[in-house]
């Protein structure tokens, strides 16, 4: 009875892309408005931390919370929410407060003012 040996070849390009997906990722920034209860914000942080661990991605998690990082426009989560609410054309409230269209909020981070 002989043993069979198999040579496993890996595609260098696939390996390179896998390493990029795992190691060369932008940080995840977390922030929330000042009206969010502490237990809810901590649960969100824990959920993101667990999701990152489960995905195997090597990302930094930057927790801004309710911190105001500058003065004036583009300075805090509260500012971003106020801007989004001011431009919303629809109103939705499912019993947890007014909800926003995430696309409108997200566009504030990459569109020119």
How does the SSE layout of this entry go?
Elements: H1 12-23, E1 28-31, H2 38-55, E2 61-65, H3 77-87, E3 92-93, E4 98-99, H4 102-107
Parallel strand pairs: 1-2
Antiparallel strand pairs: 3-4
Write a brief structural summary.
With 113 residues, the protein is of the alpha+beta class. It has 4 helices and 4 strands; from the N terminus they run H-E-H-E-H-E-E-H.
Explain what this protein looks like in three dimensions:
- With 113 residues, this protein is α+β, with helices and mostly antiparallel strands.
- The protein has helices spanning 12-23, 38-55, 77-87, 102-107; strands at 28-31, 61-65, 92-93, 98-99.
- Strands 1-2 form a two-stranded parallel ribbon. It has a two-stranded antiparallel sheet with strand order 3-4.
- The model has no long low-confidence stretch (mean pLDDT 85).
